[in-house]
Structure formats: structure tokens, C-alpha cells
């Protein structure tokens, strides 16, 4: 902190040093008691100045102040979006049943509304509450208002995942990218920025001239840094078509998931179970894969060993294999690592 040395004691000492020594400056004296409250206020002011400085810069700002800083450069926080799910409906005889568009159904605390027919008995159902909560549950839907002839209603596949409001970390990453890699006239930085402006996109990789002059390929992943859904690919394609320079031919694709399977033998610490260790290790793997997606060209065998050794409950390990081998696993340009089978034994 810039003003970390500006404490109450330091400020008060400077103030007292300005008072002639022939005047009583001891604690409890009139001068001391008159200056102490001012010194406290000044020390608090310096603390708040440190906060102001942190909020003024993109790398340290947070919340609404990061929003304001990013907005100066045309970068805005992505708002929460609702999940779109598949609803399956039948009559009393298990025959596909068509419900009216706009019909509302409840599953526990979430309400879904029919927005589009997919085929007989199947509809797109959009959560009324934005956010990832709409992705979580599956099961029987209850109509909020009676629908004559309806037998069963089931909430099934996630067609388009709901996204929570963009985090500070994600917004800061996009803001700094915009400032440090400015887009100009449809360069690669422009396409990366346009792709990541779409809610649900976690990162993008741009390949100029991938199929000849005037062609651009944009490869995307979702916010979990995993392969994107077809709906998300379509949304990014449509958005970039509105933004791209005239004459450019743009192809948007999802990254391909590269399954990474890990097996090892471990020595367990007292009080831990094999399931505890395997679950914690799987979480660490997911975080590592998310961190290196689109930024590394390989999955590190040594790093996975370190993650395993740092997993709570693991004293030591041996026999570690990654995709059946004991070497780094290469990633192609459009591949991102995803967790495969994790087998930990004792």
C-alpha cells in the first residue's frame, strides 16, 4: 500500500514535533488531546486513499468500480442469462402432447416457461430466473395452471446453460485484453473480443486465413473452459456476423475436448478415505485443466503429480500414469483438456 506508513502514531508524532518543546506534549495534555482526534481522522483518510487507488486501476478494482473503469473502454459486465432446457410432454397414454407456448411449469423453486416447439411433445423451456441454478435439476414438472389432456411433464436436457453474472475476474480479463491487445479493423484481437462478449463464452482462439484469403476461424469454449454447445456456437456466429468487416468469411467452432485419464497408487494419511482423496483430486484436475485451456500446448505429467501429492490425505504416490503413459500429453490447436477416468487406489 502506498500510504501504509501513515499510521495514527506516525501522524501524531509529526504533529507534536511541530509544537515547541517548552509546551507540555505528554499524553493527556491539552495539546496532545487536541491533536489526537485530528491524527485519527488523517490516518483513516490515508487508509481510504489506498482503497481509492486500488479501485482506480483495472488490475485491482472490483465491483461497480471495475464496471465503471471497463465501461470507459466499451467493455461491459455480462449479465446473468436464463437456462434453456428440453421439456418432454405426454398425454395419459404416453403419446407426445403439445402444450401451449407460454405455459409455465415449476420444478422445486424454479419456474420454466415453454418458448418454442422442438417436435411433437418436446419444447424449449426457459427458466424465468437467470443464472446457473436453472441448469441443476431434472425431473417431473408441475403445471402452474391446469392444462387439459396433459399426462406427464419432464424437464430433461440442458440445451443452453444459464450463466451467472460475470465475475470480477472474468470482466477484468476481458478489460485488460481490450486495453493491451486493441482491436483494429477486424484484426485477430477484434474477433477474440467479439467472441468473448457473448454470454457463456469463456475464451476464444482466432486462426486468421485458416481456409484461404478472407477466412477467419474462431474456436470457443464455455465459461468452464470446456467445449461449447451448438447453441452457443450459433450465438457467437450470429454476433460476429453483425460485427465483422465486410468481405470476411467467419467460421465459429467449439473446441474439442481431449479426455485426460489419470491413475495412481497412493499412501493414505490416517483419517482419510480413498473416496475423499479421489474427489478432492478430481476437483484439482478440473481447476488445472481450466487454467491451461487455450494457454498451454500440453498437459504436464509433473504438474499432475504435484496436484496429487498436494491433495489432502495423500502422503505419497507411485505408479502415476496420464493417458496410460508417464509423459506430457500434447494438445492440438483446437483441443482443451477435460477430465477422463480418474482411478486412485492404495
From TrEMBL:
Residues 260-345 form the Baseplate J-like C-terminal domain. Residues 184-254 form the Baseplate J-like central domain. InterPro entries: Baseplate_J-like_C (IPR058530), Baseplate_J_M (IPR058531), Phage_Baseplate_Assmbl_Protein (IPR052399). PANTHER family: PHAGE-LIKE ELEMENT PBSX PROTEIN XKDT, PROTEIN JAYE-RELATED. Belongs to the Mu gp47/PBSX XkdT family. This is Putative phage protein gp47/JayE. It comes from Anoxybacteroides voinovskiense.
Amino acid at each position: 500500500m502506498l500510504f501504509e506508513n501513515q499510521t495514527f502514531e506516525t501522524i501524531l508524532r509529526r504533529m507534536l514535533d511541530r509544537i515547541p518543546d517548552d509546551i507540555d506534549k505528554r499524553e493527556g495534555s491539552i495539546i496532545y488531546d487536541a491533536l489526537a482526534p485530528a491524527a485519527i481522522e488523517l490516518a483513516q483518510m490515508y487508509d481510504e486513499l489506498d482503497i481509492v487507488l486500488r479501485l482506480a486501476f483495472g488490475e485491482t478494482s472490483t465491483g461497480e468500480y471495475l464496471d465503471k473503469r471497463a465501461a470507459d473502454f466499451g467493455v461491459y459486465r455480462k449479465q446473468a442469462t436464463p437456462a434453456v432446457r428440453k421439456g418432454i410432454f405426454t398425454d395419459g397414454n404416453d403419446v407426445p402432447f403439445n402444450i401451449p407456448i407460454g405455459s409455465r411449469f415449476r420444478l422445486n423453486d424454479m419456474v420454466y416457461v415453454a418458448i418454442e416447439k422442438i417436435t411433437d411433445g418436446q419444447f424449449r423451456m426457459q427458466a424465468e430466473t437467470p443464472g446457473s441454478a436453472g441448469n441443476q435439476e431434472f425431473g417431473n414438472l408441475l403445471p402452474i395452471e391446469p392444462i387439459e389432456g396433459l399426462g406427464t411433464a419432464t424437464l430433461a436436457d440442458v440445451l443452453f446453460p444459464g450463466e451467472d453474472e460475470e465475475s470480477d475476474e472474468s470482466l477484468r480479463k476481458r478489460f485488460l485484453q481490450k486495453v493491451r491487445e486493441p482491436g483494429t479493423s477486424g484484426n485477430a484481437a477484434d474477433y477474440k473480443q467479439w467472441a468473448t462478449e457473448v454470454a457463456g463464452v469463456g475464451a476464444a482462439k482466432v486462426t486468421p486465413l485458416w481456409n484461404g484469403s478472407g477466412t477467419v476461424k474462431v474456436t470457443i469454449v464455455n465459461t468452464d473452459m470446456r467445449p461449447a454447445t451448438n447453441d452457443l456456437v450459433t450465438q457467437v456466429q450470429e454476433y460476429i456476423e453483425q460485427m465483422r468487416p465486410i468481405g470476411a468469411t467467419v467460421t465459429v467452432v467449439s473446441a474439442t475436448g481431449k479426455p485426460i485419464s489419470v491413475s495412481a497408487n497412493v499412501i493414505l494419511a490416517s483419517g482419510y478415505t480413498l473416496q475423499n482423496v479421489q474427489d478432492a483430486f478430481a476437483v484439482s484436475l478440473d481447476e488445472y485443466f481450466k487454467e491451461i485451456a487455450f494457454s498451454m500446448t500440453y498437459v504436464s505429467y509433473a504438474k499432475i503429480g504435484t496436484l496429487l501429492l498436494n491433495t489432502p490425505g495423500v502422503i505419497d504416490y507411485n505408479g502415476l500414469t496420464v493417458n496410460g503413459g508417464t509423459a506430457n500429453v500434447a494438445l492440438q490447436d483446437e483441443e482443451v483438456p477435460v477430465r477422463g477416468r480418474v482411478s486412485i487406489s492404495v
